[in-house]
Structures
1.
Amino acid sequence: MPDRAFKIPVSVLVVIHDPALNVLLLERADRPGFWQSVTGSLDAPEESLRSAALREVAEETGVAADPAALRDWQHSTVFEIYGHWRARYGPGVTHNTEHAFSLCIAADTQPRLAAREHLAFAWLPWQQAAAKCFSPSNREAILRLPEILSTPG
């Protein structure tokens, strides 16, 4: 058994946007040129998805989000973990279940990036943000943003 814990193959994706549907994207430090929304795995099996989403937003952007502002989409996507990240997971783990959330914040918010995780940020109109994402599930979530926000919830 390695001296480090394996990642849990359950994660959250938080599409952060402003009222005009500009979306915040972050450039990965370990993969320059790979842009994404806030993402992250549960820290422990007992951590709730909502808690993980709020924690990841704070860790990756420095934004202390109002829990009431975090919208749970009640939607998950199962995808194959990219080969270059598989070693982070336990033996034989090949797929992750990602749960989608969104968070509306002020348009002038300047994130405070976690330097070990991200190199840069960009606020982009939702269509451009979707096109810039390397992850198909992230791209699809951003494309669904206007639809999700138009439904009560």
2.
Amino acid sequence: MKAAVLIDERHVLDAGTFVEIVVWRLPRPARGSAHRFKYRLALVVDGVCVLRYDNEAGKGDHRHVLDAEERYDFTAPETLLADFWRDVEERRR
């Protein structure tokens, strides 16, 4: 089984703001992750990534809020999306 793209979306929220969501199902967990999903979810405002969830190889699941990085407890793709959209809404208030 090869990696399969599950979601590849870009949502323009306003003239200077967009969200990009990419999620793959992997044949085996990426290095540093215990699950078979690879993901990158980002909120970009005026060319600056202000929020990003990802699990790059070796670092495991985490999120970036501006310059701060913190661990993220991944449970399922649906929860990941809900958590991300909740944070997007909070950042846009």
3.
Amino acid sequence: MNNSHLNMIVRQIANENCIDKAVEMLNRAKAYREAHNIRTKLDEQIEREQNYEHDYIDKILSETYPVSIEMIAADYDMTADELNEFMKKLELQYKVLGEWFLYPQYTCHGYTVMSEVYDDGHLIGYQTLWTQKGRLFLYSKFIKADIYPTMERDDD
């Protein structure tokens, strides 16, 4: 075997070692990237869980329009009747002739507004809607009673 042939074999072995090392480095980089992606996802999940209490308040503060009791009840995975009864237990409201009214100490704070209800262009009645200020008020009362909106519950 001559020197040039031997040098070619040595270079080939060196190249094969480089390829093996390159493959090993790529595998390590891939494993690192996967581990980093998993860690990033875990960090994001931990942050979401730590900040979940602010999600509902952020949602309320981002909205400006008044909402029905049915919409608020849905936030708590209740029916409107269940939520109204719960608010009665908390002594926030009372019922007269089938209509719910806030107790006087809560009526002047802008928690609710009245909306006219029409049918075929004719006024047929009124509906109470809750302002975002009212939703925050209810949220604070419900939290004290250990009732949380579904988006803040840890139902695992």
